[in-house]
Write a structure and sequence with these properties.
about 40% strand; 4 helices; 2 domains; Nucleoside Triphosphate Pyrophosphohydrolase; three-stranded antiparallel β-sheet; 10 strands; alpha+beta; GDP-mannose pyrophosphatase; NUDIX_hydrolase_dom; NUDIX_hydrolase-like_dom_sf; about 20% helix; hydrolase; about 190 residues; seven-stranded mixed β-sheet
Length: about 190
């Protein structure tokens, strides 16, 4: 392969940067749009003693634009200036009020490599009732309006299998946790 970026121009610059790339792909020259998106972290917090996980819902403008109600999601956020595990811990405190000490890395994934530079670092973290030290709900001034709830892992897994879990991060993290700890997904 002799694929290459031949040129780039900025179409828009704000929180995201939108670029038009001039490329050589498979010997042909073409243009493609690229979204420069900061990388982030996503975390599934779970209580192994009670076999529940804390998931959140929050209005996201892309699903809203398509008329889709808020999704059940894993904790997540952007943190370019800090290590991904720190971003995951900070977001867990802001969004769901949990102070997490140890986070287990699962891996990192490209969300849509055909159009965006966004990568998400995935983590799992155990918690207990004593770790809920704040109210959660999101950071002041960020218009997050986050609601969260604890849900049985068996119920979340059933939702994953029936297609009701549509957030990619939550979907991947539930699968990762089930591979590591299948006992947590047994119904009472």
């Amino acid at each position: 392969m002799n694929d290459a970026i031949l040129g780039s121009r900025i179409l828009y610059q704000g929180w995201l940067t939108l670029r038009m790339l001039q490329l050589r792909l498979s010997g042909d020259e073409c243009e493609r749009t690229l979204i420069e998106h900061p990388s982030g972290s996503a975390l599934l917090a779970f209580d192994p003693a009670r076999r529940v996980a804390t998931v959140l819902t929050q209005t996201r403008y892309a699903p809203l634009f398509l008329g889709v109600p808020p999704l059940a999601e894993a904790v997540g956020g952007v943190g370019e200036a800090e290590p991904p595990a720190e971003t995951a811990r900070r977001e867990a405190l802001e969004e769901i009020g949990l102070s997490l000490h140890a986070v287990e890395p699962v891996g990192h994934v490209w969300m849509t490599p055909s159009t965006t530079t966004e990568r998400v670092h995935l983590f799992l973290a155990e918690y207990g009732p004593e770790d809920r030290i704040e109210q959660g709900g999101g950071a002041a001034g960020e218009q997050e309006d986050i609601a969260f709830s604890e849900r049985p892992l068996a119920e979340l897994w059933a939702d994953t299998q029936s297609g009701r879990v549509t957030d990619a991060k939550l979907f991947m993290l539930l699968h990762a946790l089930r591979v590591r700890r299948p006992d947590l997904f047994e119904a009472d």
